[in-house]
Amino acid sequence: MARPPRSITAEERALWARVIATVTPMARERPLPIPVPTPLSPADPVPLAKAAVKGRVPPPRPPAPREPIRPPGQTLDGGWDKRLSRGLVSPDSSVDLHGHTLASAHAMLDRGLASAIARGDRLLLLVTGKPPRPESERPHARGAIRAAVGDWIAASRHADRIAAVRGAHPRHGGHGALYIVLRRARDPVARKS
Asked: Over pLDDT 90: what percentage of the chain?
């Protein structure tokens, strides 16, 4: 059952009057005028309604993507993968990152890739050290270089020359090393013929 509203006492009315006396009203924003449409004169062109299209209208097509850049690791054929997994391919050169800081290891990897590409190497052995244990928390106490190598390779200025990155065979370092398979340099003279 609802109670009837109570009336305000004289004390409450006096208190409310004092509160109202201390308040200054905020400046009100003037509402924007509503534009009134002007009537068309007989000389004005009459806007035409859009013609109704029958059937389904397909959505606009997105622009065609440029030639996709394959990330390293997706471009080897089965023969390469078999030979690498069995340790049948010997690396043309190697880069050892043991004992380096993250900054010096990154610089050394960049120099090693540049040298291997300049020599025309096909397989670079990158010795990084063992990866961090799965239960270790970031930042890793061990394996910081190994954890960063994937990002370094993907963002490298030589990324377009890297065909694949694979784990090394135990005879070449096992879990503490990686194979970096480099693409062959394209000969511009051979392509023209």
From this structure: 9
